[in-house]
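Weekly structure sync, notes
Attendees: PL (lead), two postdocs, one rotation student
Agenda item 3: pending single-chain targets
PL asked that the sequence for the first pending target be pasted directly into the notes so everyone works from the same version. It is reproduced below exactly as submitted, 311 residues in total.
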Amino acid sequence: MVYRIGPAWSVSLEQLEASLQAARFVECGLTQEKSVGWVEPRGEAHGPLVESIGGQWLLKLMLESKAVPGSVINRKAKERAAQIEAATGRKPGKKETRELKEEAKLELLPMAFTKQGSVQVWIDPEARLLMIDAASQGKADEVLTCLAKAMEGLGAVLLQTTASPVAAMSEWLVSQEPLAGFSVDRECELKAGDESKAVVRYSRHALDIEEVQQHIAHGKLPTRLAMTWEGRVSFLLTDTLQIKKLAFVDGVFDGDAAASKAERFDADAAIATGEIRRLIPDLLEALGGELVMNAAAPPMPAAAGDDSPPF
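Predicted structure, written out during the meeting:
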């Protein structure tokens, strides 16, 4: 998910590092259901929480949660309620039942297994772009909340384009002529906008066929379309301008096999961010350009040439 950072944002690398240090990840306590905090992007203990590579900032948010099945909590609470009724002849009311469930949950939480997950975050300070590698809007919102606490004036909003992704994808599928630099691949999802909510999915299937054009003519609209940019980066574009299934074509990451772990991290980060940094403005152009919601926000810079510093 790609966000435009607000015009009021002005944070140095040192300031961000200090802010994140105050919100380092700590594992859940015995009765704690959830813990969220920042960890080292490089994976090295006690390292920096912001990696700056080629002028690009990389962060990593860790999320840990504990969950006790509701059925187990209810069974435990019912057992307690039965004991109270047997001892006093009084059946617990609604309020007391809720309290019994809460007590049962606190008792069971120390025995619950923890589940961890992380979210990669990438900030381009020069272009004032924020990229969050999250599969759902809810997860992205959680990351934004943590970032807002660390960076005053973030004001991040999802990128908007003059042409909607749905309209552009429809045109590309009908005309089979996407903007120069892009090619349509072999995966697509079409949804009907009427009450039927019919869905047609193509996977590993040619899309330059009359059947696809007929579906669009009959009112089904593309919500996902697989594409490749410059023969280097493949991705799945969605109707909400999310970039999913991002993958680099073989050869993009060819490098020195003898490089150290730290050198490979730097090289991979520089290559990946550099490729995507060139992809995003081309994609915005293919969608009619960025729709700037705030006149004070700077426009997306033109794609960098090969001699530009890595993103």
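Discussion points:
- Residues 75 and 101 are 9 Å apart (CA to CA).
- Residues 261-286 form the longest helix (26 residues).
Action: rotation student to compare against the earlier draft before next sync.
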